[in-house]
């Protein structure tokens, strides 16, 4: 699977995990040069507290367009530190 934003592949992996319709990519599969840590957090009742990345590609920013769970509940341990996308990031195989 590939995550694409602003015509660049920002993550690529054959080992994604699908949860609630979102492909979660292993952390080592993201191209770190496109990701900046964000101070945004949100809470999922069953997964835990999510942290976010802002994606920056070719001079354009997509704030908080990627999220991950640095710590998870027992139910979500399979996606700990896996990264998912929204806000216009395309997921293709």
UniProtKB/TrEMBL annotation:
<protein>
    <recommendedName>
        <fullName>DUF427 domain-containing protein</fullName>
    </recommendedName>
</protein>
<feature type="domain" description="DUF427">
    <location>
        <begin position="1"/>
        <end position="87"/>
    </location>
</feature>
<dbReference type="InterPro" id="IPR038694">
    <property type="entry name" value="DUF427_sf"/>
</dbReference>
<dbReference type="Pfam" id="PF04248">
    <property type="entry name" value="NTP_transf_9"/>
</dbReference>
<dbReference type="InterPro" id="IPR007361">
    <property type="entry name" value="DUF427"/>
</dbReference>
